[in-house]
Amino acid sequence: MRGVIERLARDGTAVARSDGTLHSIFPVAASVAEGEALREWVLREGATQTIEIGLGYAISALHVCEGLLGSAGPTARHVAIDPYQATRFSNCGLQFLDEAGVAGLVEHRAEESQIALPRLLGEDRSFHLAFVDGNHRFDGVFLDLVFLGRLVRAGGIVFVDDYQLPAVARAASFFVTNLGWTLEEVSPADDFHQWAVLRTSAVPDTRPFDHYVDF
Hints:
Elements: H1 2-11, E1 13-15, E2 22-24, H2 32-45, E3 49-53, H3 59-71, E4 77-81, H4 92-99, E5 106-109, H5 113-122, E6 127-132, H6 138-151, E7 152-161, H7 166-179, E8 182-186, E9 195-199
Parallel strand pairs: 3-4, 3-6, 4-5, 6-7
Antiparallel strand pairs: 1-2, 7-9, 8-9
Helix pairs in contact: 2-3, 5-6, 6-7
């Protein structure tokens, strides 16, 4: 797996096995620095069940899997939600996971997150850590975080990409000001991939029905 990550980082391009198209991986994919931070959070939390919105070129997923194998072993499982894997990305993300030998670790759901996340909730799934890199509009990010707030365990980690975008930062701020989530880390400013790490509240939600704090 490390060899695949290093090759992709070095070359910056790859040919899709599915249709022979050439793909430029960056800056669409998360940076290697962000991937390494994500891996370290997986290890730090001792995560065994993780979820990702936006598989893309699988740079983030490869780092998550690297962390999972380092801490969880055979019990590890990663869910990747991406409805555009077969079209926009020519299945490159799944290809790279296969080349790294971790395809069996990953459950790919080819649905939009607003459909896939409620399904997972209905299946009584639970996760220790989530990575969010899907729809970057405010309503899309907000909805993802609403469902992840129920899918990620109390006191779990939600790692948010593209925090430099006002819509992403604004959506995240609601959960900090209204739901008691904490901001654990914000990376240095970056035009393409700043990230923020949020921790969900460890206590039950006991807000009154009319609770609201401006965010």
